[in-house]
Amino acid sequence: MDLKSIDVRTQKYISERRNPTVTQVMTGLISLGSVPLNLILLFFIYQLGTFQQFKELLITLILTWTLVHFLKKFYSRERPENQVIDPSFASSFPSGHSATGFASSILLSTFFPGLATVFVLLALTVSFSRIYLGEHFFTDALAGSLLGLFTALIVTIIL
Questions:
Q1: Model confidence, pTM
Q2: Segment 132-139 mean pLDDT
């Protein structure tokens, strides 16, 4: 079985089981991986954290956004046909929400280790919401999640 058939089968399975209440919750979670929320997060880390934490988060987010946009231009993958919210025509691969969600959650987990489980669960939920809402295929969300994870780890190691 190839990746495309896994993506299509996963998308079909999830879309056939959508529930209005869950759909509403998942739609609300979209902002957790968005650029505006990440800018707010940067502001709070700047105000409440250390300059080193702010620098790590800023560099990680810039690098993540840059890589996501490069890969989207390079792959130019069509999105699933069954999008719940306003259809997007931008490339589907990789999921930017998943990438920034994981990048932020990994860094926040290093800044606040006691909340690591919460941050990672939020990132997983954001990634799943992208699949659930038909915005991305499974491999888009997986690739975005891994991209965010590795970007955050690399920046943490280097800085």
A1: 0.92
A2: 93
- Residues 35-54: what's their mean pLDDT? 92
Listed range (17-21, 110-114, 151-155) with the worst mean pLDDT: 17-21
Dihedral of the alpha carbons of 79, 81, 84, 86, in degrees to the nearest 10: 60
- Whether 28 has a pLDDT exceeding 80, the answer reads yes
Counting beta carbons within 10 angstroms of the beta carbon of residue 76, is it exposed (0 to 12), middle (13 to 18) or buried (19 or more)? exposed
